Amino acid sequence: MTSQRKFIIGAIFIVLAVIAFSAWQIRQLAGSTLTITKETIFTLPAGSGRVVLEAELNRQHIIPQTIWFGWLLRMEPELAKFKAGTYRFTPGMTVRQMLMLLASGREAQFPVRFIEGSRMRDWLATLRSAPYVRHTLPDDQLRSVAEALKLDEAGVEGWFYPDTYSYTANTTDVALLKRANERMVKMVDGLWQQKAEGLPYKDKNDLVTMASIVEKETALAEERSKVASVFINRLRLGMRLQTDPTVIYGMGENYTGTLVRKDLETSSAYNTYIIAGLPPGPIAMPGKASLEAAAHPLKTDFLYFVANGEGGHTFTTNLASHNRAVQAWRQAVREKNER
Fold first, then answer.
1. Over 268-304, what HEC string results?
2. Which domains does the chain have, with CATH numbers?
3. Which of 40, 47, 191, 294 is most deeply packed, by most CB within 10 A?
């Protein structure tokens, strides 16, 4: 064998060895775990190529510095079809799994919870603090929400369904509110069609208004339809509703945490100690149970209820019994404070 032939064969063996070693290193990289110890949110900007991706992964210490990352993308081109977005990486995830996630476009989902009984101002504050939400509303006024969603201002409070909503990064505040509004409208439409006969509601807004009052009056699921029955009975008899939560809502920022007699005697569109019938609109976002209670209240003779000191309420049919229940509640409060 000539020396030239030996040289060529040797060179071939070297090249094959280098190729084999490189392929092994690339496979090792693909199967290695990310260098993160906790869940990491990673954002890949739009228009990013391979160089930008690698630079960002290195900058955030998600993968180790290596010469093989670019070669992995060339060796497995399906992994190079990554999409811009915001993703959630978890400890134990391999480099290949990470690249497959980026190629899938399955962006990270973030939860935002809107609570039953809260107001639109509370929802807007929640959105202001929610991560990765893009804020487009100019302020936290009901008018701005109404304009953005093309609603009447009177159709803002109460007309958004409380629940936990998932969203991806850069979802707008308006988009999330629109989803909640559409769900509430759909639910109220269904309940309106199936509501009990003879309820003293002139329109769907009255049903939602009643549900919002029930929501604020009790946190006990088993009491909601009974509370609704009290207010329905009062409406039918022409009695004032006399419910504190409506007064509090009408006071707005003037409410400091305690109602006094002067508050109950101060006129407002929501002071049900003064006005007859329901207030002009909802006072909070009612949940499903309160909406159902407003659509299907129990049939009772109750006209009054007061807290019983144990988390629930005592329901009565006449003023004398109600006054005795009030005295019992006050006694329970005094005994509790003396402990």
1. CCCCCCCCCCCCCCCCCCCCHHHHHHHHCCCCCCCCE
2. 26-104 (3.30.1490), 110-186 (no CATH), 200-338 (no CATH)
3. 294
